[in-house]
Design brief:
Elements (H helix, E strand, L loop, with lengths): L1 H5 L5 H8 L1 H4 L4 E3 L5 E3 L9 E2 H10 L6 E5 H22 L5 E6 L6 H11 L5 E4 L2 H10 L6 E4 L5 H12 L3 E6 L4 H12 L5 E4 L24 H13 L6 E5 L9 H20 L6 E3 L23 H19 L5 E4 L3 H4 L3 E11 L16 H11 L6 H20 L5 H22 L7 H4 L1 H4 L2 E5 L3 H4 L1 H5 L6 E3 L9 E6 L8 E2 L2 E3 L2 E3 L2 E3 L9 E5 L5 H4 L10 E7 L5 E7 L4 H7 L4 H17 L5 H16 L7
Parallel strand pairs: 4-22, 5-6, 5-12, 6-7, 7-8, 8-9, 9-10, 10-11, 11-12, 14-16
Antiparallel strand pairs: 1-2, 2-3, 4-13, 13-14, 13-21, 15-21, 16-17, 16-20, 18-19, 22-23
Helix pairs in contact: 5-6, 5-12, 7-8, 8-9, 11-12, 14-15, 14-16, 15-16, 23-24
Length: about 650
C-alpha cells in the first residue's frame, strides 16, 4: 500500500491509514495536519496536544530521551468510561445491583499511578485488588472510600491476614479471597484472636477456559482457586463455626487480555450458577467478582486475535450484566454487586514510551565489478550468471540458486580454498540478486512462499535509545504487539522498511514484529534520518505491566517519567516529573557502593600517577569523568 501511494503525493491521511492510529488509538491519539501525532485528552473533537511540542518542552526542562510520558486525562477517561458503560447497561437492563470497579495494583504498582487511580476513581467508589502485603499496605494508605472494595488475593500468611483484619477495623470494605483450601483455618484463627469478623470470598476454578496469552490462568487445572467440591467444604466449615454470614463474595479469573466475548460470557454464566448455588446454601453473598480479562485492542483489528478483541466496552458491560441476570432471575436471587478487576484496560492507554533514533544500519546497493577477476571461483561465476538471468518467470529458481552458490562459497572459505576478498565478492553478488528479486516480486500477483519475507533480510536496523528489557519486557518475553510509529514527519512518505534495535548488547533487544490489520508484519515503515535532526518514535499503550516487569539488563535503569495534564482550553502543564535512574542509582540496586567505587578508582589513579603514566592534573580529569559518569543517565545522552 505504501509503495503504491508513493507514486502519488503522500498525505497525512495515508499515514493515518498506514499506522492504523484510528483503530487502536480509541480516540485518544490522532495525527495533525502538520504531520505530528497528537494527544486528544478530551476525545477526537477536543483540543490536540502535539507530541513533538511536548518533547521540545521536555528538552527545555533538561530531560533527555527516552521518556515515559503519562497523560493524566486519559487515565481519568478510562475509569469514567468503564463505570459509565456499566451504569448504562445496568439502567438499560433494569439490573437491581450496582457495579464496583477495582484496579489490580500488580498491573502498575508505581505510586503516582495508584494514587491517581484512587483520586480519579473516588467518585465511582473505585477500589483496589492486592496480592501481597506490600500492595495491601499501599492500598490501605491511599483508599479513603468505605464503599470502595479492597480485594485480597494471593497467598496470605498470618501477617497478611492481620493487616487485612486491621484494615477492616479502620473501615475498609475488604474481602479475603481464599485461593487455597488451607487458608480458611488460619483466617478463622486470626479472626478469633483479633476479635474481628472477616468478609470472606473464594476464588472458583471454572470449567471454561479462555483463549489468549494467559489462557492457563483459568480452567479446572489453573494454579489458583477452589473446585466446586472445595467450595462446598468451605460452606460446611463456616456453618460449623457459625460464620456462614461472613461468606459474601465469589471470585474467578479467566485470564488477562481475553480477546473473545464468547469466552467472557460463558465464564460469567458459569460463575453465576456457582453464585446461585452458594446463596441456596444459605450464604448471604452480595458480591460477584469477575476478575480481569477486559482486553485492549493493541493492533486495532477488532478481532479475537491475541493482541486484539472482538467486542467494544459497551458490549462487554451489556453481556456481563445480561449473563448474570439470565441465571439469577430464573432462581429469583437478588442481583449482587458486580466487581471487575480491569487493570490493563484502565492504564494501557495512559502511557507512551518516547525515544530517539541514534543511528541506522542500511542494506545499500552493492558496487559490482564490470568484469569478473580472472581468479574468480566457480560459485562467483555462477552467481554472476544468476544475476544476469533474473526475470519474473524464474524468481524462485534464481533465489534457490543464489542460496546454493553462496553456501558453496562459504564452505570453500571455511576450508581455506578461497580468499577473504573472493568470498566478499560472492556476498556482493548474492545481495545484488536478493535486492533484484525483492524489487521484481512486487510485480507478481501470487508471490511464492519462500519470497514472501525476503524484504525482512533487506530491512534497515533503526537503533533506538531505550531498552526492550526495561521498558517493553512483554515484547521480548511473549511477543506482545504494541503500536509503534514515528511521532512526526507523517506528511512525508516513509520510504524505508526497518526493524528496531535497542542499545543493549543483546540480540534479543530488538522489535521485529509490528501491528497489521492481518495480524502482524515483520517490518515497520519509517523515514530516512536527516543530518543534524532527531527522529522520534513512540510506543503506545504501554501503561499495563511494562513498568513493573522491566529488568536491569545491561544495567539500564528506569527512564525519565513525566506526566502532563490538559485543561479544557487545550493548554497543558507538566504536573509530575521523575528523573530516570542515574548510573550510581542502578549500581546501588545491584549492591555496589558508589563511594567505594570512587575510592577504588582514586587508588588506581594515584598509582598511575606514581608509576608516571599520568600527571596529577590528568588524575583530576580522570576522577571528574568518573564522578560525572556516576551522576549521568543510564541511556545515551547527546
Amino acid at each position: 500500500m505504501a509503495k503504491n501511494r508513493a507514486l502519488q503525493q503522500w498525505r497525512v491521511e495515508d499515514s493515518i491509514e498506514l499506522y492504523g492510529i484510528r483503530n487502536w488509538g480509541a480516540g485518544y491519539f490522532s495525527v495533525s495536519e502538520a504531520g505530528d501525532v497528537v494527544i486528544c485528552p478530551q476525545g477526537p473533537r477536543g483540543p490536540q496536544i502535539p507530541i513533538p511540542e511536548v518533547i521540545a518542552g521536555l528538552h527545555e526542562r533538561g530531560y533527555d530521551m527516552p521518556v515515559l510520558l503519562r497523560v493524566e486525562n486519559i487515565l481519568d477517561a478510562r475509569i469514567t468510561n468503564i463505570h459509565e458503560s456499566f451504569r448504562k447497561a445496568i439502567k438499560a437492563l433494569s439490573y437491581k445491583g450496582a457495579f464496583r470497579g477495582v484496579f489490580p495494583i500488580k498491573v502498575n504498582q508505581q505510586q503516582q499511578v495508584v494514587e491517581k487511580i484512587a483520586q480519579s476513581g473516588s467518585q465511582y467508589h473505585h477500589g483496589f485488588e492486592v496480592g501481597s502485603k506490600a500492595e495491601l499496605i499501599a492500598a490501605v494508605s491511599l483508599l479513603r472510600d468505605p464503599k470502595a472494595c479492597l480485594i485480597c488475593n494471593g497467598y496470605k500468611d498470618e501477617e497478611f491476614l492481620d493487616l487485612g483484619l486491621q484494615a477492616l477495623r479502620l473501615g475498609c470494605n475488604l474481602f479475603f479471597v481464599l485461593e487455597m483450601p488451607g487458608e480458611l483455618d488460619l483466617l478463622l484463627e486470626r479472626s478469633e484472636a483479633l476479635n474481628i469478623r472477616p468478609n470472606i470470598g473464594v476464588r472458583a476454578k471454572l470449567a471454561v477456559k479462555a483463549g489468549g496469552h494467559w489462557m492457563d490462568s483459568g480452567g479446572e487445572r489453573s494454579t489458583f482457586g477452589l473446585s466446586p467440591a472445595q467450595i462446598v467444604d468451605v460452606v460446611d466449615k463456616l456453618k460449623s463455626c457459625d460464620m456462614l454470614d461472613c461468606f459474601r463474595l465469589l471470585h474467578y479469573h479467566l485470564g488477562s487480555q481475553v480477546p473473545n466475548i464468547r469466552d467472557i460470557r460463558t465464564g460469567v454464566m458459569e460463575s453465576a450458577r456457582l453464585y446461585a448455588g452458594l446463596v441456596q446454601e444459605g450464604a448471604p453473598m452480595g458480591y460477584l467478582d469477575l476478575g480481569g480479562g477486559l482486553a485492549v485492542d493493541y493492533d486495532g483489528s477488532h478481532t479475537n486475535y491475541v493482541s486484539s478483541r472482538n467486542y467494544t466496552l459497551d458490549e462487554y458491560c451489556a453481556d456481563v450484566i445480561e449473563a448474570v441476570m439470565s441465571i439469577l432471575d430464573e432462581q429469583r436471587i437478588p442481583h449482587p454487586y458486580i466487581i471487575t478487576e480491569s487493570g490493563r484496560a484502565t492504564v494501557a492507554y495512559y502511557s507512551v514510551l518516547l525515544f530517539n533514533i541514534l543511528d541506522v544500519s542500511v542494506v545499500e546497493e552493492v558496487q559490482l565489478p564490470d568484469t569478473l577477476p580472472k581468479d574468480a571461483p566457480e560459485p562467483v561465476r555462477n552467481l554472476h550468471e544468476t544475476l544476469s538471468n533474473i526475470s519474473l518467470r524464474n524468481l524462485q529458481e534464481c533465489y534457490n540458486d543464489a542460496i546454493y552458490y553462496r553456501d558453496e562459497m562459504r564452505q570453500l572459505f571455511f576450508t581455506g580454498r578461497v580468499t577473504l576478498r573472493q568470498r566478499t565478492l560472492a556476498e556482493r553478488f548474492f545481495w545484488a540478486i536478493i535486492m533484484r528479486i525483492a524489487r521484481e516480486k512486487t510485480k507478481l500477483k501470487n508471490v511464492p512462499r519462500d519470497l514472501e519475507d525476503i524484504d525482512v533480510s533487506l530491512a534497515d536496523i533503526y537503533y533506538g535509545n531505550f531498552s526492550v528489557f526495561q521498558s517493553l519486557p512483554d515484547s521480548w518475553a511473549i511477543d506482545q504487539l504494541f503500536p509503534i510509529m514515528p511521532v512526526h514527519r507523517l506528511g512525508e512518505f516513509p520510504s524505508r522498511q526497518g526493524i528496531i534495535s535497542d542499545i543493549t548488547c543483546d540480540s534479543d533487544g530488538r522489535i521485529a514484529h509490528f501491528i497489521d490489520p492481518q495480524g502482524m508484519k515483520p517490518t515497520l515503515d519509517l523515514h530516512p534520518l536527516r543530518e543534524g535532526e532527531e527522529y522520534y518514535l513512540g510506543v503506545f499503550l504501554v501503561g499495563a505491566y511494562q513498568e513493573t516487569l522491566g529488568d536491569l539488563h545491561n544495567l539500564m535503569g528506569d527512564t525519565n517519567v513525566v506526566s502532563i495534564r490538559a485543561a479544557e482550553d487545550g493548554t497543558y502543564e507538566y504536573v509530575r516529573e521523575i528523573r530516570g535512574d542515574s548510573v550510581a542509582d542502578i549500581l546501588t540496586y545491584v549492591e555496589y557502593d558508589p563511594r567505594r567505587i570512587l575510592e577504588d578508582l582514586r587508588v588506581t589513579a594515584e598509582k598511575a600517577v606514581k608509576d608516571g603514566r599520568i600527571s596529577p592534573s590528568e588524575r583530576f580529569a580522570v576522577m571528574q569523568a568518573f564522578e560525572n559518569g556516576l551522576r549521568g543517565y543510564t541511556y545515551f545522552e547527546r
